[in-house]
Write a structure and sequence with these properties.
InterPro entries: Ion_trans_dom (IPR005821)
Strand content: under 5%
GO molecular function: monoatomic ion channel activity
Number of strands: 0
Keywords: Membrane, Signal, Transmembrane, Transmembrane helix
Distance between the termini: 18 Å
Number of domains: 2
Shape: flat
Membrane topology: Multi-pass membrane protein
Main location: membrane
Number of helices: 9
Length: about 240
Amino acid sequence: MRRATYFFIFLNLSLALFEEPAVYPLPFLATSVLEVLCLLVFLGRLTHFAKVTQHNVFWKDTKNICIMVAILLSLTDLAIYGVLRLYDVRSIRWSRIVRPIFLINFAESRQIRRAFRSIRNTLPEITYVFLLFMFSLLMFSLMALKLFGERNLQTAEGLPYFRNYLEIVFDLYVLVTTANSPDVMMPAFDFSSWYALFFIAFVIVNTYIFMSLFLAVVYNNYKKHLKVMPGGACD
């Protein structure tokens, strides 16, 4: 039963690779039949669990409620999507985001739930570090707007350079990962090599300090919650 449950959970999650927009597209009928099969298996597994569990215990367990709601949402979305396809109306399968619920809430996924709850308990404690990072990012973006926005600089593609605040925030956010380095600073560097100091300071503060601090806080709090969480709490 456990292996069968894991197989159909994996199959249900894998359907995202074959549904539009897909990596390997399959006909809608094929993916919908497979999804209905998975949902029937999940419903049968839930029904079997209800038969061997006391009625009041079964309905008080939020995991069972989550599974039933996920099945209902998936079937509703599948029916709506199928009807819209008959009338050549483009739509998306919004219910795909609920599919991980099956992975988390079945009784066999105790360790996954334990990790998920540790992550959930860690999030409030890393909020302050995240807010500090966002404040630093917004302040550096404002400085960049004041430094470069009035100099009519252009990118290599001839586009305006650092004149829109939201675009600056996004570009500097990407710079935290160094994915757009050093391209993002080249228009300013070509105008004056001294402007490289701004980007060097940004990388030191946000990439080397804040990201290291953020990672340390996440790791330490996650490890703390993972250790203190009792085994019974995962049920």
